[in-house]
Structure formats: structure tokens, C-alpha cells
Amino acid sequence: MLIRDHWQLNPDIDFLNHGSFGACPRIVLQKQYELLQQLERDPIQFLAPERELEPKLDEARQTISNLVNASKSDIAFVRNSTDGVNAVLSSFPFEEHDEILVTSHGYNACNNAAHHAAQKAGGKITIADIPFPLNSSADVIGALEKKVTSRTRLILIDHVTSPTGLIFPVEEIISLARAKDIRVLVDGAHAPGMLPIDLTTMAPDYYTANHHKWLCAPKASGFLFVTPELQHQVRPNVISHGANPTRSDRSRFLTEFDWTGTHDPTPLLAVQTAAQFMESLYAGGLTELYDKNHEKTLRGREILCDALEIAAPSHNSMIGSLATIPIQTEQFCRLDGTAAPAENLQKILFQEYHFELPVFQCRELPTACLRISMQAYNEISQVERLAEVLSQLKQERNPRV
Fold first, then answer.
1. If we measure between CA atoms, which residue out of 339, 340, 314, 321 comes closest to residue 383?
2. Among 150, 211, 269, 381, which has the minimal tally of Cβ within 10 Å of its Cβ?
3. pLDDT digits (tens, 9 = 90+) for 141-150
4. How buried is 133 (Cβ within 10 angstroms: 0-12 exposed, 13-18 middle, 19+ buried)?
5. What's the mean pLDDT in 350-366?
6. Helices 271-280 and 26-41 meet at what angle, rounded to 10?
7. Order of strands, edge to edge, in the sheet holding 206-210?
8. The pTM is what?
9. Is the pLDDT of residue 18 over 80?
10. How many C-beta atoms surround the C-beta of residue 48 within 10 A?
11. Which CATH superfamily, name and number, covers 3-16+283-397?
């Protein structure tokens, strides 16, 4: 059985966009279906926290605890990273004139949440303009240092950036912040299943991430880590029964996030199956998976950069399983006047050549970008075909090239 056969992806599409929403293997979907059947056979027994739900959630929590090297008592569940970021921001004790520092590579939804939180408190957002292309992770640290002020209270930083696919030096950023008494919220949306995570060593104040992307769990599944001394401050985005617990065996932090009202917990409860499956793909487990995806991504980026005649936009050490290429989209588009060049190129690649991957103009960056994802089911031949198509489109648009 080929690795790609474990997924249900459309064989007529070259799917190079695992990074957006992930893709769930058949065995994980089957586990979720079995859990749904159990739920509907006896909803009270399954969903009542004091009966089956809490023990099942604690099993899933242990899986994530092992994956990220953190105490399971410090891990709450959220629907996704954006949910986790919002929970921290809405709970944070901001005061008037306080500042939240974000970056130009930040995820738009989370930067929007930071803007909202700052506005409510009478504070403001400061954006660290990180170049792209960039020379090294020192460019990230330098850009942040320039924007830190005496009013900076929180830094919201990506572990792996969504638009540019870069691994940021989060441990160095946390050290910088700690020296200035600034808290750090790490958006690790892409990290689980892409690269090793050690939250004990990293020691962030807050870290939130998705299970449904590179770990390949069902959609609407993620976690929020909060360091113990701050857990009393952090509340979920939906306040429910867990707000006034009378229990001595469980923190309010867990009871509140475990139950935010009637919901489908099966995406969370299938995370153990997802982690076990991804671990089983190669003899070397997750470490070999990380290495193979990283190697494919670097090779894919090299192929595209050669085809576009550009230099790699970052050092290899900043790449995991995502790679973003700066691209002059007008060189490739047969402009129809109804869409921006990046949107037009993405539409051409999908509709005419059956590639699924993002081409976009990032608000905070000067260049349009094309991003590839390389999961276990992807093959270098898919990127080679993409490079051929881009070269063909460029030739059609610029006959003298």
C-alpha cells in the first residue's frame, strides 16, 4: 500500500496545500466514526463529564502531553489555534496604553484578534516588520527588538509562520521577552506533527496549536498550554458550567475548557489514533517523518527557485514542511481584469492544471507568495510538474523570455 492511499484525497488533484486545513487519514476518520456511533448510542453516558467524557479527554491530553513534553495539567483543549489565541487575549489583564507586539508574518486571524483586544483595552498594536526574503533568524530577533517599548505587555509570535512557512526562533524570543518582563503567546498552529516541541525547555507563557494540520487529527481539534501561575487568569471564549466548580480534584482551568457547552468531542478523542498512525508511517517514527518531509520541502523549494531563477528566500534551517516562494505573479497570469494577479494565478493553477496550493498577496509583505506543503503523501514529482507549468505560463506571458 502506498503512503498516499492512507488518505482520501482526490487523485486528480496535486494537493500541495496540507498546511491550510490538513487532511485526515482513513484510519483516523474511521476512529472518529466509531466514537460518533458510541456517542449517539448513549449521549448522556458519553458526554456527561463525570461519566465517560473526562477520562476520555484525559487520555487525549496525555497523548498531547507526551508529544510536547508538558504536564497534562497545563494543557486545555480548544477548537484550533485561533480559538486558543483569542482565549488568551480576551483574558489578558491589559490596561490603557499597553502594547501588543505582533509581526508582519503573523496569521491574519490572530493579528485581528490582537487588534480587537488592544482596541477594547485602549491599547495598541505594534508590528515588527520582518523582511522576506531574509538572511537568518537574527533578522527576526532584530526586528522585534526594535519595536519593544516600555509599554509592551505581550508578544504574539508564530512558531511556524503561515504565510511564509518559516520556523521562528521562539526560544530566543522568549528569552528576550523574559528579560524585559514581557509575556509571550506562541501560535504553534503548524508545529505538532511538523517538528519536535519541548514546552518544558521552551518555557512560553502560553502556547496554542492545532492537531488537525500536521498531526492529521480531525478538524476542530487543538490545545492551549498555559504556565501554571497564569492559569487562574485564562478563560475560554465560552463561559459555561466549569466557571464555578466545587471540585478539589480538578482545576478550574481544565473544567472550564473541557466543557464549554454541548459540542462534538470526537475530533479531540481521535487524536491518539492520529498520533499513533503518523508515528507508524516510518521505522524511525515521528523523527523520520519530520526529516523526510523537511528534505522533500527543501528539494521542492530548490526546484521552484531554479525554475523561477531566484535565490532561496531563507536559510534551510528555518524550513520545516512548508516553503514559500516570492513570486511576481503578473509574469504568469493571463490577466482577465476581474481578479488580482495572485488570485488569478491560483485560479489558473487549480482550474487548468489541477494544483491545489495558495498563491496570495500578504497584507504586510511587499511581494506575492506561492506556498507548497510536503506531507508524507506528497511526492517531488508533483513539484516538478508545478515548476514545468510555471515555466510554461511565464513563456506564454513573456514570449521573449
1. 321
2. 150
3. 999 999 999 9
4. middle
5. 88
6. 160
7. 75-78, 222-226, 206-210, 183-187, 152-158, 99-103, 124-128
8. 0.95
9. yes
10. 13
11. Aspartate Aminotransferase, domain 1 (3.90.1150.10)
